[in-house]
Amino acid sequence: MKVLLISDVVLEHIYSNSIIERFKDIDFVISCGDLPNYYLEFIVSTLNKPLFYVMGNHNSTTFYRENLIDNSNYKERTIRNDQDTENLPQGCINLNQKIIEYKGLILMGLEGSMRYSSGEYQYTDFEMSWKINKLRPRLLLNKIFKKKYLDILVTHSPPYKIHDNEDLCHRGFRSFVKFINVYKPKYLIHGHIHLYGLNKEWQTTVGSTKVINAYGYRVIEI
Q1: Per-residue pLDDT tens digits for 15-35
Q2: Parallel, antiparallel, or unpaired for β 122-123 and 203-206?
């Protein structure tokens, strides 16, 4: 099963009709946040595959829409302070604090970054731990009836000391490290940390979990 991972930056060769040929064998798409609505909606409608997403810290105050003017694509960027459901990407599946099974794979999502300002989609480590604890009953039921807690944890931020940076905004969550140790997902897929250059680490194995930075895009086979 092939999965297209996207996060943090709009890429021209993804936002193009050639995506149909380039990714025709993709089974589904995972977005790890900080991407505009029009980008996600284009991908899900063009590929006609499920797209699961979580919000990033920069999704909080920016709402994007696309208009057609003089037969050319014109992207209009509107600053907003509210985040009602009308501002969420249409046709896509919000994974935040949900556990969803798709084609035998169990996915779970946790949005946002460490709290560093008063913006939306920012949490302290305690708050993130509380979000995880609320999902614990469902995880335990999965273990009992499906013999596994989950397969893929989708986040915006990385775990603490794994692919993260020292500044508070880009620091990973300690609660994600605990989650890996207890629930042992096959994959933790995140964004948030921008990668530049060829030598940047984008995949790390922690126990039995592959931690993958989806910055830009990647294709993985499960």
Answers
A1: 999 999 999 999 999 999 999
A2: unpaired
Note the pLDDT of residue 60.
Answer: 54
Give the three-state DSSP class for 63.
strand
Q: In whole angstroms, what is the distance from residue 135 CA to residue 139 CA?
A: 6
Cα distances (Å, whole numbers) of residue 100 to 42, 51, 92, 103, 151: 23, 12, 13, 10, 10
Distance CA 74, CA 97 (A): 34
What domains are defined for the chain?
2-221 (3.60.21.10)
List the structure tokens of 151.
């397969």
Quote the pTM value: 0.88
Strand partners, 29: 4, 51
- Cα radius of gyration (the chain): 17
**Rounded distance between C-alpha atoms, residue 175 and residue 52, angstroms:** 22
